[in-house]
Amino acid sequence: MASVTQHYADHLGPIYEWMIGGFDAAAEAARADLRAANIAGSPGRVAVDLGARLGAHAIALAEAGFRVVAIDTCGPLLEELTARTRRGLEITCVHDDLQLLPRYAAGPVDVIACMGDTLTHLASPDAVRRLLQTIAETLAPGGIFLSTFRDYSARPPEGRCRVIPVRQDDDRILTCVVEYHATTITVHDLVHERTAAGWSLRVSSYPKLRLRPSWVRSALRRTGLPVTAETTPQGMVQLTARRPA
Question: Quick one: average pLDDT of 171-175?
Answer without folding.
Answer: 98
